[in-house]
Amino acid sequence: MKKVILYICFMLLGKVAIANVIPNPLFSDNAVFQQNVAVPIWGIADRNERITVSFAGQTFSTIAINGHWMVKLNPLKAGGPFDLVIQGKNTVTFSNILVGEVWICSGQSNMERQLGLRGGQKPIDNWKAEAAAANYPQIREFAVGRNPSPFPMSNLKGKWTVCDTATVIQFSAVGYFFGSELHKKLNVPIGLIHTSWGGTPAEKWTSRAALETNDELKRLVDAYDEAVFKYPEVLHKYRQSEPVLLQKWVADTLSASENKKPLPQKPMPPADPLRSGDCGGLFNSMIYPLIPYAFKGVIWYQGESNSGRAKQYQTLFPTMIGDWRKQWNIGDFPFLFVQIAPHVNMTPEIREAQLLTSQKIPNTAMIVTIDCGDTTDIHPTHKRPVGERLALAARALAYGEKEVMYSGPVYNAFKIKGNKAEISFTHTANGLMAKDGHLFGFTISEDGKNFVSAKAEIKGKIVVVYSEMVKIPRAVRYAFTNNANGNLFNSAGLPASPFRTDID
Q1: Mean pLDDT of the chain
Q2: Could you tell me the CA-to-CA distances from 209 to 150, 203, 212, 408 in Å, in that order?
Q3: What is the reported pLDDT for 503?
């Protein structure tokens, strides 16, 4: 509780006697503003200080109320570069600002992974050639600083970086491939607000208030509150036992070294739950400070850290999407996400939860990565198709290109005909196809419990599934394993999502 009180006092002190007008860091050199919508610009200053903002021929003035100010520019057309001038008691000028399309790129490590090399991870496919060709001065990335907070924050750390052959190696690889593809197709500037953190479950990115609205998700909040309450006692017990633990660690280290065995980990104090980012802690510091920045939509790559709680994710993920949309209050903006790639530790149920979300929540799209994963590496290196498929979804959902096929086949209906099952799909384009050989990846069951490998044949836009061991089919599954494997595609070259007809 003392830490909480001190934190609040620190935040309050930060709002007193600003003296100079200070815009939110999102408004700085090299920024990208969203076209065709009102553009909020905001910051802090002295109370009752008059603030004037000028940009691209528009000028607006306002008064800082309780130290906070905001103006809204009228909708802008794509173009630039422009200067942004903000005047109060002081004047700040930012240059090289463009107007185009802005997307938020968020999630965990597969979104965080930069194009360049990263310690402990395999290189991104063809990264050197990709970087050498990345001379795109109209693509910029704002990398949000990582700083979990138990309370919503009004400010954040980060800066806009112009994409070139040197800087691109620090861009999110998925974000870059997405943004460069959109830039080529739309021929407008692209801004990428990159806010991600490896190893983070979705509840960290969802506001506490949203979690508390659902009885199942509220249990996450209750567990977090209990951990915060008990932390002083847990830490005290550790401190009491630390000398003994360290003494044992020294002895074990010497023994392991002499016997050429792996060295034991040094004992560490238990982590402070207030600094964990749990139950909205990353939303507070890495999403909330972005509001109400004008943008087009979100691309999201996350779910690995929720794989063991896939049933809960069916509720959690839609709740998070709805929470973000409610917080921005600009309608159901496009929310495009990546289905988790095959991996030995990624259950099929987490992919199913993602599929169900795409079918249940409006203006969302899921892109499938069954063909570009690595069953032994949680960080697949084949990132270009991920970004390109997200760009296809953006073109279809966000930019109204109805002719663009953005999804692979998605299970639609199950029909029994004798000893065979007929499976129909949506998103078949001009028909279905088996990539690189005979169709595989299907299993079939007579009792809904025991599944055997099945033969599968494509008949136009339907797949016929059967097995000599099954007289009357009851259920069919496709690539429904941790190491999901199958080769069903549509004529647009996009892979089918794993599925089961016997969903609970």
Answers
A1: 95
A2: 12, 11, 5, 35
A3: 86
Q: pLDDT tens digits, residue range 60-86?
A: 999 999 999 999 999 999 999 999 999
Spell out the CATH class of 100-207+280-397: alpha beta
CA distance 202 to 317: 7
Nearest to 323 by CA among 285, 295, 363, 283: 283
What's the one-letter identity of residue 155? N
Q: CA-CA distances (angstroms) from residue 116 to 113, 412, 422, 464?
A: 8, 40, 46, 44
The torsion of the CA quartet 40, 46, 48, 51, rounded to 10 degrees, works out to -40
Q: Measure Cα distances from 163 to 5, 179, 212 in Å.
A: 42, 10, 40
Least reliable range by pLDDT among 6-15, 176-185, 248-257, 399-408: 6-15
**Per-position b or e across 302-324, b if 16+ CB within 10 A of its CB:** bbbbbbebbebbbebbbbbbbbb
pLDDT tens, residue by residue, 83-129: 999 999 999 999 999 999 999 999 999 999 999 999 999 999 999 99
C-alpha distance from residue 366 to each of 343, 397, 461, 478 (Å) = 18, 11, 21, 17
Domain 15-99 fold is: Immunoglobulin-like (2.60.40)
Which uninterrupted H or E stretch holds 348? helix 348-360
Structure tokens of 435? 């990539």
**Domain ranges, ordered by start, for the chain:** 15-99, 100-207+280-397, 215-275, 410-500
